[in-house]
Protein backbone atom coordinates (compact mmCIF):
# COMPACT_ATOMS: atom_id res chain seq x y z
CA UNK A 1 0.00 0.00 0.00
CA UNK A 2 1.32 3.40 -0.94
CA UNK A 3 1.61 6.11 1.70
CA UNK A 4 -0.82 8.96 1.45
CA UNK A 5 0.35 11.95 -0.60
CA UNK A 6 0.96 15.37 0.90
CA UNK A 7 -1.24 18.39 0.50
CA UNK A 8 1.05 21.32 -0.33
CA UNK A 9 -0.50 24.77 0.06
CA UNK A 10 1.39 27.71 -1.41
CA UNK A 11 0.06 31.08 -0.34
CA UNK A 12 1.18 34.60 0.49
CA UNK A 13 0.21 38.26 0.22
CA UNK A 14 -1.38 39.56 -2.97
CA UNK A 15 1.19 40.58 -5.55
CA UNK A 16 4.01 38.48 -4.08
CA UNK A 17 4.24 36.29 -7.20
CA UNK A 18 2.57 33.03 -6.14
CA UNK A 19 1.39 32.20 -9.66
CA UNK A 20 4.80 32.72 -11.23
CA UNK A 21 6.54 30.59 -8.63
CA UNK A 22 3.88 27.87 -8.93
CA UNK A 23 4.38 27.85 -12.71
CA UNK A 24 8.16 27.52 -12.29
CA UNK A 25 7.65 24.59 -9.93
CA UNK A 26 5.40 22.81 -12.39
CA UNK A 27 7.66 23.59 -15.35
CA UNK A 28 10.61 22.03 -13.55
CA UNK A 29 9.12 19.30 -11.37
CA UNK A 30 5.76 18.66 -13.02
CA UNK A 31 5.76 14.89 -12.64
CA UNK A 32 6.24 14.99 -8.89
CA UNK A 33 2.79 16.24 -7.90
CA UNK A 34 -0.68 17.03 -9.14
CA UNK A 35 -2.01 20.52 -9.36
CA UNK A 36 -5.30 20.89 -7.54
CA UNK A 37 -8.10 21.43 -10.06
CA UNK A 38 -10.65 24.03 -9.04
CA UNK A 39 -14.40 23.77 -9.33
CA UNK A 40 -16.30 26.70 -10.80
CA UNK A 41 -19.76 27.82 -11.84
CA UNK A 42 -18.51 30.11 -14.59
CA UNK A 43 -19.18 29.15 -18.21
CA UNK A 44 -16.72 26.86 -19.89
CA UNK A 45 -14.61 28.73 -22.44
CA UNK A 46 -13.59 27.32 -25.80
CA UNK A 47 -10.80 24.80 -25.44
CA UNK A 48 -11.31 24.30 -21.71
CA UNK A 49 -11.75 20.70 -20.62
CA UNK A 50 -13.80 19.31 -17.75
CA UNK A 51 -11.55 17.82 -15.08
CA UNK A 52 -8.44 19.39 -16.58
CA UNK A 53 -8.91 23.14 -16.53
CA UNK A 54 -11.78 23.10 -14.08
CA UNK A 55 -14.60 20.99 -12.80
CA UNK A 56 -17.58 22.84 -14.29
CA UNK A 57 -20.75 22.78 -12.19
CA UNK A 58 -24.07 24.60 -12.05
CA UNK A 59 -24.74 27.09 -9.30
CA UNK A 60 -27.19 24.62 -7.71
CA UNK A 61 -24.65 21.79 -7.72
CA UNK A 62 -22.01 24.07 -6.23
CA UNK A 63 -24.31 25.29 -3.47
CA UNK A 64 -25.27 21.70 -2.75
CA UNK A 65 -21.57 20.93 -2.24
CA UNK A 66 -21.20 23.94 0.05
CA UNK A 67 -24.14 22.67 2.10
CA UNK A 68 -22.56 19.20 2.31
CA UNK A 69 -19.19 20.64 3.41
CA UNK A 70 -17.70 19.16 0.24
CA UNK A 71 -15.25 21.98 -0.46
CA UNK A 72 -11.87 22.59 1.12
CA UNK A 73 -12.50 26.30 0.55
CA UNK A 74 -14.47 28.47 -1.85
CA UNK A 75 -15.05 32.09 -2.75
CA UNK A 76 -17.36 34.11 -4.95
CA UNK A 77 -15.84 36.29 -7.66
CA UNK A 78 -17.85 38.46 -10.09
CA UNK A 79 -20.96 36.40 -9.60
CA UNK A 80 -19.32 32.96 -9.93
CA UNK A 81 -18.17 30.45 -7.39
CA UNK A 82 -14.65 29.06 -7.35
CA UNK A 83 -13.56 26.36 -4.93
CA UNK A 84 -11.44 23.31 -4.17
CA UNK A 85 -13.39 20.04 -4.18
CA UNK A 86 -12.55 17.95 -1.15
CA UNK A 87 -13.30 14.60 -2.82
CA UNK A 88 -10.85 15.17 -5.64
CA UNK A 89 -8.11 16.20 -3.23
CA UNK A 90 -8.70 13.21 -0.96
CA UNK A 91 -8.78 10.75 -3.85
CA UNK A 92 -5.51 12.04 -5.25
CA UNK A 93 -3.85 11.94 -1.83
CA UNK A 94 -5.12 8.39 -1.31
CA UNK A 95 -3.45 7.37 -4.57
CA UNK A 96 -0.18 8.46 -2.97
CA UNK A 97 0.15 11.60 -5.10
CA UNK A 98 0.96 15.00 -3.65
CA UNK A 99 -1.59 17.71 -4.34
CA UNK A 100 -0.35 21.24 -4.91
CA UNK A 101 -2.68 24.12 -4.14
CA UNK A 102 -1.88 27.79 -4.83
CA UNK A 103 -4.30 30.06 -3.07
CA UNK A 104 -4.94 33.43 -1.39
CA UNK A 105 -4.16 33.77 2.32
CA UNK A 106 -7.79 33.74 3.44
CA UNK A 107 -8.48 30.54 1.51
CA UNK A 108 -5.34 28.93 2.91
CA UNK A 109 -6.56 29.50 6.46
CA UNK A 110 -9.81 27.71 5.63
CA UNK A 111 -7.87 24.80 4.15
CA UNK A 112 -5.75 24.65 7.30
CA UNK A 113 -8.93 24.21 9.39
CA UNK A 114 -10.06 21.24 7.28
CA UNK A 115 -6.65 19.68 6.61
CA UNK A 116 -4.19 20.69 9.32
CA UNK A 117 -1.88 17.88 8.18
CA UNK A 118 -1.11 19.84 4.98
CA UNK A 119 2.23 21.57 4.42
CA UNK A 120 1.56 25.31 4.45
CA UNK A 121 4.15 27.47 2.74
CA UNK A 122 4.05 31.26 2.95
CA UNK A 123 5.68 33.05 0.02
CA UNK A 124 7.04 36.28 1.41
CA UNK A 125 8.22 39.49 -0.28
CA UNK A 126 11.99 39.33 -0.76
CA UNK A 127 12.89 42.28 1.40
CA UNK A 128 10.49 43.44 4.07
CA UNK A 129 12.37 46.67 4.75
CA UNK A 130 12.17 47.49 1.07
CA UNK A 131 8.47 46.64 1.01
CA UNK A 132 7.96 49.08 3.82
CA UNK A 133 9.84 51.95 2.21
CA UNK A 134 8.13 51.24 -1.12
CA UNK A 135 4.75 51.65 0.53
CA UNK A 136 5.77 54.82 2.36
CA UNK A 137 7.76 56.54 -0.39
CA UNK A 138 5.37 56.53 -3.31
CA UNK A 139 5.47 60.32 -3.63
CA UNK A 140 2.07 60.78 -5.15
CA UNK A 141 -0.03 58.88 -2.61
CA UNK A 142 -2.18 60.44 0.05
CA UNK A 143 -1.45 59.65 3.67
CA UNK A 144 -4.69 57.74 3.84
CA UNK A 145 -3.72 55.56 0.89
CA UNK A 146 -0.31 54.83 2.41
CA UNK A 147 -1.89 53.93 5.69
CA UNK A 148 -4.42 51.61 4.06
CA UNK A 149 -1.80 49.77 2.03
CA UNK A 150 0.50 49.48 5.03
CA UNK A 151 -2.36 48.12 7.08
CA UNK A 152 -3.18 45.48 4.47
CA UNK A 153 0.46 44.41 4.14
CA UNK A 154 0.78 44.08 7.90
CA UNK A 155 -2.45 42.09 8.21
CA UNK A 156 -1.27 39.66 5.53
CA UNK A 157 2.18 39.28 7.05
CA UNK A 158 0.68 38.50 10.43
CA UNK A 159 -0.82 35.33 8.95
CA UNK A 160 2.68 33.83 8.67
CA UNK A 161 2.21 32.36 12.13
CA UNK A 162 -0.36 29.90 10.73
CA UNK A 163 2.10 28.46 8.21
CA UNK A 164 4.76 25.78 8.46
CA UNK A 165 7.40 27.34 6.23
CA UNK A 166 8.25 30.79 4.94
CA UNK A 167 10.08 31.21 1.63
CA UNK A 168 11.31 34.58 0.39
CA UNK A 169 10.59 35.22 -3.26
CA UNK A 170 14.01 36.72 -3.96
CA UNK A 171 14.16 35.09 -7.38
CA UNK A 172 11.52 32.82 -8.90
CA UNK A 173 14.13 30.13 -9.49
CA UNK A 174 15.35 30.19 -5.90
CA UNK A 175 11.86 30.20 -4.42
CA UNK A 176 10.76 27.30 -6.67
CA UNK A 177 13.84 25.30 -5.72
CA UNK A 178 13.34 25.89 -2.02
CA UNK A 179 9.68 24.89 -2.15
CA UNK A 180 10.55 21.74 -4.04
CA UNK A 181 13.20 20.94 -1.41
CA UNK A 182 10.72 21.48 1.41
CA UNK A 183 8.39 18.93 -0.19
CA UNK A 184 11.21 16.44 -0.66
CA UNK A 185 12.37 16.88 2.94
CA UNK A 186 8.83 16.42 4.27
CA UNK A 187 8.75 13.05 2.51
CA UNK A 188 11.96 12.08 4.30
CA UNK A 189 10.46 12.57 7.74
CA UNK A 190 10.70 9.40 9.79
CA UNK A 191 7.03 9.66 10.77
CA UNK A 192 6.12 9.23 7.08
CA UNK A 193 8.42 6.24 6.62
CA UNK A 194 8.05 4.27 9.83
CA UNK A 195 5.57 1.78 8.39
CA UNK A 196 7.89 0.80 5.57
CA UNK A 197 10.76 0.21 7.98
CA UNK A 198 8.54 -1.59 10.47
CA UNK A 199 7.56 -4.06 7.72
CA UNK A 200 11.18 -4.76 6.78
CA UNK A 201 12.16 -5.16 10.42
CA UNK A 202 9.31 -7.59 10.96
CA UNK A 203 10.41 -9.66 7.97
CA UNK A 204 13.99 -9.72 9.22
CA UNK A 205 13.19 -10.75 12.76
CA UNK B 1 20.68 39.29 17.16
CA UNK B 2 21.26 36.21 15.06
CA UNK B 3 19.03 33.19 15.53
CA UNK B 4 20.61 30.19 17.14
CA UNK B 5 22.18 27.69 14.76
CA UNK B 6 20.93 24.15 14.33
CA UNK B 7 22.57 21.02 15.65
CA UNK B 8 22.57 18.49 12.81
CA UNK B 9 23.23 14.91 13.82
CA UNK B 10 23.99 12.41 11.06
CA UNK B 11 23.97 8.81 12.17
CA UNK B 12 23.06 5.34 10.97
CA UNK B 13 24.09 1.69 11.16
CA UNK B 14 27.76 0.76 11.02
CA UNK B 15 29.01 0.39 7.47
CA UNK B 16 26.27 2.49 5.91
CA UNK B 17 28.74 5.15 4.73
CA UNK B 18 28.20 8.02 7.16
CA UNK B 19 31.78 9.28 6.85
CA UNK B 20 31.72 9.34 3.05
CA UNK B 21 28.42 11.20 2.94
CA UNK B 22 29.60 13.67 5.59
CA UNK B 23 32.74 14.33 3.55
CA UNK B 24 30.67 14.95 0.40
CA UNK B 25 28.49 17.41 2.32
CA UNK B 26 31.51 19.34 3.55
CA UNK B 27 33.23 19.26 0.16
CA UNK B 28 30.17 20.80 -1.45
CA UNK B 29 28.62 23.00 1.22
CA UNK B 30 31.51 23.54 3.63
CA UNK B 31 30.83 27.19 4.35
CA UNK B 32 27.28 26.57 5.51
CA UNK B 33 28.04 24.86 8.82
CA UNK B 34 30.75 23.93 11.26
CA UNK B 35 31.86 20.39 11.80
CA UNK B 36 31.75 19.43 15.45
CA UNK B 37 35.28 19.04 16.76
CA UNK B 38 35.78 16.08 19.06
CA UNK B 39 37.69 16.03 22.31
CA UNK B 40 40.13 13.19 22.91
CA UNK B 41 42.71 11.93 25.37
CA UNK B 42 44.80 10.25 22.73
CA UNK B 43 48.24 11.67 21.89
CA UNK B 44 48.43 14.42 19.34
CA UNK B 45 49.96 13.18 16.08
CA UNK B 46 52.33 15.19 13.94
CA UNK B 47 50.51 17.88 11.99
CA UNK B 48 47.36 17.75 14.12
CA UNK B 49 46.24 21.06 15.54
CA UNK B 50 44.48 21.79 18.81
CA UNK B 51 40.94 23.04 18.19
CA UNK B 52 41.02 22.04 14.54
CA UNK B 53 41.58 18.28 14.41
CA UNK B 54 40.67 17.66 18.05
CA UNK B 55 40.61 19.27 21.41
CA UNK B 56 43.43 17.40 23.15
CA UNK B 57 42.98 16.83 26.86
CA UNK B 58 44.52 14.71 29.60
CA UNK B 59 42.62 11.79 31.01
CA UNK B 60 42.07 13.75 34.23
CA UNK B 61 40.66 16.76 32.40
CA UNK B 62 38.37 14.54 30.36
CA UNK B 63 37.08 12.68 33.42
CA UNK B 64 36.51 16.01 35.14
CA UNK B 65 34.31 17.04 32.16
CA UNK B 66 32.42 13.75 32.36
CA UNK B 67 31.79 14.41 36.05
CA UNK B 68 30.54 17.94 35.26
CA UNK B 69 28.19 16.67 32.53
CA UNK B 70 30.20 18.75 30.07
CA UNK B 71 30.01 16.31 27.16
CA UNK B 72 27.16 15.79 24.73
CA UNK B 73 28.30 12.18 24.46
CA UNK B 74 31.53 10.25 24.88
CA UNK B 75 32.93 6.76 24.43
CA UNK B 76 36.11 4.88 25.22
CA UNK B 77 38.06 3.30 22.39
CA UNK B 78 41.34 1.38 22.79
CA UNK B 79 42.09 3.04 26.09
CA UNK B 80 41.33 6.61 25.01
CA UNK B 81 38.29 8.80 25.47
CA UNK B 82 36.55 10.49 22.57
CA UNK B 83 33.65 12.87 23.06
CA UNK B 84 31.75 15.95 21.96
CA UNK B 85 32.29 18.98 24.21
CA UNK B 86 29.00 20.64 25.08
CA UNK B 87 30.50 24.12 25.56
CA UNK B 88 31.99 24.24 22.09
CA UNK B 89 28.71 23.11 20.51
CA UNK B 90 26.66 25.64 22.48
CA UNK B 91 29.03 28.50 21.70
CA UNK B 92 28.95 27.76 17.98
CA UNK B 93 25.15 27.48 17.98
CA UNK B 94 24.90 30.78 19.88
CA UNK B 95 26.97 32.44 17.17
CA UNK B 96 24.21 31.43 14.75
CA UNK B 97 26.28 28.71 13.08
CA UNK B 98 24.95 25.21 12.45
CA UNK B 99 26.96 22.41 14.01
CA UNK B 100 27.25 19.15 12.11
CA UNK B 101 27.88 15.98 14.07
CA UNK B 102 28.50 12.56 12.50
CA UNK B 103 28.23 9.83 15.06
CA UNK B 104 27.35 6.20 15.83
CA UNK B 105 23.73 5.36 16.65
CA UNK B 106 24.33 4.87 20.37
CA UNK B 107 26.05 8.25 20.66
CA UNK B 108 23.25 9.91 18.70
CA UNK B 109 20.69 8.68 21.22
CA UNK B 110 22.70 10.24 24.04
CA UNK B 111 22.88 13.53 22.13
CA UNK B 112 19.13 13.39 21.61
CA UNK B 113 18.63 13.21 25.38
CA UNK B 114 20.72 16.32 25.96
CA UNK B 115 19.63 18.31 22.89
CA UNK B 116 16.23 17.13 21.69
CA UNK B 117 15.94 20.28 19.57
CA UNK B 118 18.64 18.92 17.21
CA UNK B 119 17.83 17.63 13.73
CA UNK B 120 18.48 13.89 13.77
CA UNK B 121 19.06 12.26 10.40
CA UNK B 122 19.29 8.49 9.99
CA UNK B 123 21.35 7.35 7.02
CA UNK B 124 19.83 4.09 5.89
CA UNK B 125 21.11 1.31 3.64
CA UNK B 126 19.89 1.92 0.09
CA UNK B 127 17.84 -1.21 -0.24
CA UNK B 128 16.64 -3.01 2.85
CA UNK B 129 15.54 -6.10 0.96
CA UNK B 130 19.00 -6.32 -0.52
CA UNK B 131 20.59 -5.82 2.87
CA UNK B 132 18.57 -8.74 4.14
CA UNK B 133 19.51 -11.11 1.33
CA UNK B 134 23.14 -10.01 1.55
CA UNK B 135 23.20 -11.01 5.20
CA UNK B 136 21.48 -14.33 4.56
CA UNK B 137 23.25 -15.38 1.37
CA UNK B 138 26.90 -15.09 2.28
CA UNK B 139 27.57 -18.73 1.44
CA UNK B 140 30.48 -19.28 3.80
CA UNK B 141 28.91 -18.04 7.00
CA UNK B 142 27.65 -20.19 9.81
CA UNK B 143 24.02 -19.98 10.80
CA UNK B 144 25.08 -18.42 14.05
CA UNK B 145 27.06 -15.71 12.28
CA UNK B 146 24.12 -14.93 10.00
CA UNK B 147 21.81 -14.72 12.94
CA UNK B 148 24.10 -12.43 14.87
CA UNK B 149 24.55 -10.06 11.95
CA UNK B 150 20.83 -10.05 11.23
CA UNK B 151 20.12 -9.31 14.85
CA UNK B 152 22.54 -6.39 14.90
CA UNK B 153 21.12 -4.94 11.67
CA UNK B 154 17.58 -5.18 13.04
CA UNK B 155 18.54 -3.58 16.34
CA UNK B 156 20.16 -0.67 14.53
CA UNK B 157 17.23 -0.18 12.16
CA UNK B 158 14.82 -0.09 15.07
CA UNK B 159 16.49 3.10 16.27
CA UNK B 160 15.05 4.97 13.26
CA UNK B 161 12.04 5.84 15.38
CA UNK B 162 14.18 8.21 17.46
CA UNK B 163 15.20 10.25 14.41
CA UNK B 164 13.52 13.10 12.56
CA UNK B 165 14.50 12.17 9.01
CA UNK B 166 15.60 9.07 7.17
CA UNK B 167 17.79 9.34 4.06
CA UNK B 168 18.68 6.34 1.92
CA UNK B 169 22.32 6.21 0.91
CA UNK B 170 21.55 5.17 -2.68
CA UNK B 171 24.38 7.32 -4.01
CA UNK B 172 26.69 9.53 -1.95
CA UNK B 173 25.79 12.52 -4.12
CA UNK B 174 22.05 12.02 -3.67
CA UNK B 175 22.29 11.45 0.05
CA UNK B 176 24.49 14.54 0.53
CA UNK B 177 22.08 16.67 -1.52
CA UNK B 178 19.07 15.46 0.44
CA UNK B 179 20.72 16.11 3.79
CA UNK B 180 21.71 19.59 2.70
CA UNK B 181 18.09 20.23 1.58
CA UNK B 182 16.74 19.01 4.91
CA UNK B 183 18.96 21.53 6.71
CA UNK B 184 17.89 24.33 4.36
CA UNK B 185 14.21 23.45 4.81
CA UNK B 186 14.55 23.35 8.58
CA UNK B 187 15.82 26.93 8.45
CA UNK B 188 12.71 27.92 6.49
CA UNK B 189 10.35 26.75 9.22
CA UNK B 190 8.12 29.56 10.37
CA UNK B 191 8.89 28.82 14.01
CA UNK B 192 12.54 29.70 13.32
CA UNK B 193 11.65 32.95 11.54
CA UNK B 194 8.77 34.35 13.55
CA UNK B 195 10.90 36.78 15.54
CA UNK B 196 12.30 38.42 12.42
CA UNK B 197 8.81 38.91 10.99
CA UNK B 198 7.40 40.07 14.32
CA UNK B 199 10.05 42.82 14.38
CA UNK B 200 9.22 44.01 10.88
CA UNK B 201 5.50 43.95 11.60
CA UNK B 202 6.05 45.97 14.75
CA UNK B 203 8.03 48.58 12.82
CA UNK B 204 5.31 48.81 10.17
CA UNK B 205 2.43 49.16 12.57
TrEMBL record, chains A, B:
Start and end residues of each Guanylate kinase-like domain: 5-184
Localisation per UniProt entry: Cytoplasm
GO cellular component terms, A-Z: cytosol
Binding of ATP, residues: 12-19
Pfam families for this protein: Guanylate_kin
Family: Belongs to the guanylate kinase family.
Domain of life according to the entry: Bacteria
Function: Essential for recycling GMP and indirectly, cGMP.
Protein name: Guanylate kinase
Keywords for this protein: ATP-binding, Cytoplasm, Kinase, Nucleotide-binding, Transferase
UniProt catalytic activity: GMP + ATP = GDP + ADP
Designated gene of the protein: gmk
MF term (GO), any: ATP binding
Top-rank EC class of the record's enzyme: transferase
Organism in which the protein naturally occurs: Alkalibacterium pelagium
NCBIfam families according to UniProt: guanyl_kin (TIGR03263)
E.C. designation(s): 2.7.4.8
